[in-house]
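Figure S7 source data.
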Amino acid sequence: MRCGFCLPACPTFKETGVEAESPRGRISLMKAAVDGIMEPGISFEDQMNHCLGCRACEPACPADVKYGQLIEQARDAIETHTKQHRWWVSGVRKLVFKELFPHQKRMSLLGSGLHFYKKSGLQTIVRKTGAVKVFSKHLSDMETILPDASSKGIVEQLGTYIPAKGEKIATVGMFRGCLMDVLFTETNIKTVKLLSEAGFDVVIPETQNCCGALHAHSGESDQAKALAKNNIRAFQEAGVDYIVSNAGGCGAILVEYDHLLHEEPEWKEASAWFAVRVKDISTILVEQGRPLQFAETVDGGASTRVTYQDSCHLRNVMKGSNPARQLLKEVGSVAYIEMKDAGSCCGSAGIYNVTQPVMANQILEHKMENVNATAAQYLVTSNPGCLLQMKLGIEKHGQKDRMEAVHIADFLYDRVVKN
Ligand code: SF4
Ligand code: SF4
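Tokens for the predicted iron/sulfur cluster complex:
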């Protein structure tokens, strides 16, 4: 089928109006490369790399085309066959994919470094001297919204077991995330405390590692598979009933570990065991948790205007767009405003806003038109990448005094009545 129903859902097609920048166009290019009609050269690579991987095309497709799987295979093939990486690109890829992300202790060192950068006054010096401008404009913009990184992750701060408050409903394993645990440790802590308030014993397996999403989306599928296997072992040993993620980008690959490992029959059962247990924090709170009690009036008693930006992967892959909205509406004195096109990508998309800054900024600008129209005080998200991108948009639009971007776990925990 070449119906084109996916075209209006695709952010890069909406921005450009160009067929090659659409899901249908990209699939045609993949087919032409497979059929030997075209050489998968630089322009083919560019089109594949322009795709955000947001997977908004999948729910729009009446033929149930698994676009996410196609783009990952295409990127994997590009990586396997390409010899065009410059030396420094290969160096950065090796550093990030092999030496850094898979090793949580090294990620903690990164957290310590970022913590030192912010707290020692170095950041102020760097800004005053304009040293940060030696990087690209986009990276120097990103530097302005660098969160307060932590040198101590959630296990160092809470231990590996947090009991349920009140009667226990089930045991959940917390997926802490590699970057999440360094840049948003406080959000991880609040996620665990929310789960405890809702009646879950929480276990945080220490041997878990990065989810492998970045690797899988960047053509490093062997590394992604190795990371997946280690995570499956860690959570199976912990014997949990559910596995909870608070990052849509991580959750989406976790629920697809069975597909990631589908060519390895010896992993069939274990990967299916894992995939079926993965839940986003909002979904498990709504569907399995004891209902949370929220303070009736918060934020000084005045009604608080709140809007929500979907995480593409939570919405399009984990099918979890409703629970977060439901929870936000339950919070006392919240006036919930649905944003126009809240389900459309914000331009963050993993490292897309670093590798494709022009398109990412264009998408962000259009997103901010809709954000600003809500006049919300809180812009809530369910994924660290979206959170940073929204903070960047707010900063660029000079809205910092009127609007705050927050993760849903932080927003809910700060307003829940604690047992
Ligand atoms: S994943 Fe997103 S950007 Fe890529 S083709 Fe599908 S809708 Fe377009
Ligand atoms: S991917 Fe699906 S929606 Fe898009 S053109 Fe093909 S069949 Fe139609």
